[in-house]
Amino acid sequence: MRTIRxxxxxxxxxxxxxxxxxxxxxxxxxxxxxxxxxxxxxxELKDAMKRPTFKKLKNLQEKNKKFKRxxxxxxxxxxx
Length: 80
What we know:
By secondary structure, the protein is mostly helical. The protein contains four helices and no strands.
């Protein structure tokens, strides 16, 4: 005999639509404020949504070796 599960209340709920939710929000700004501050607001929104970027150094030990070799060459040149 095989057991079959029915759907739960969670399965029956509608999926969340973030765009519809944002459309339904009433902004607390007048048209004059919007026109006046549009560039600043755009920048604030852009900065708030921007993901931070990180640069990963590849072979850090190899880069250190190359740097040390370069320093050693400079020391040798300065001696002569």
